[in-house]
User: What shape does this take?
Amino acid sequence: MLYVSVAAWVYNHAVFEPLAAFTQEFISQLPPDLLKRLMDENERSESHIAIPFTLRLEPPQRYDIHSPEWQRFIKISQDKALVKRIERG
Assistant: This one.
């Protein structure tokens, strides 16, 4: 449990605090009329910030050439008409 709290502390100080400082500095430089318009628009919309849950990039796992999923992919990729149907939705 200690690792989680240390990781949260590090993430907070490495990501959120610099982001908050940058945001405050950026907002303080906006003209008042633009700031008011942006605040009004923000009240009507939702915001989303993607937050990664890992600190290192995990390499993708490669498909095994004998796996059923990979065999199905090969079969579909050879059927050009099916590929076109999938691309069109």
Notes: The chain has a mean pLDDT of 83. The helical segments are 2-28, 32-44, 68-78, 80-88. The chain is about 65% helix and 0% strand. The chain has two domains: 1-58, 60-89.
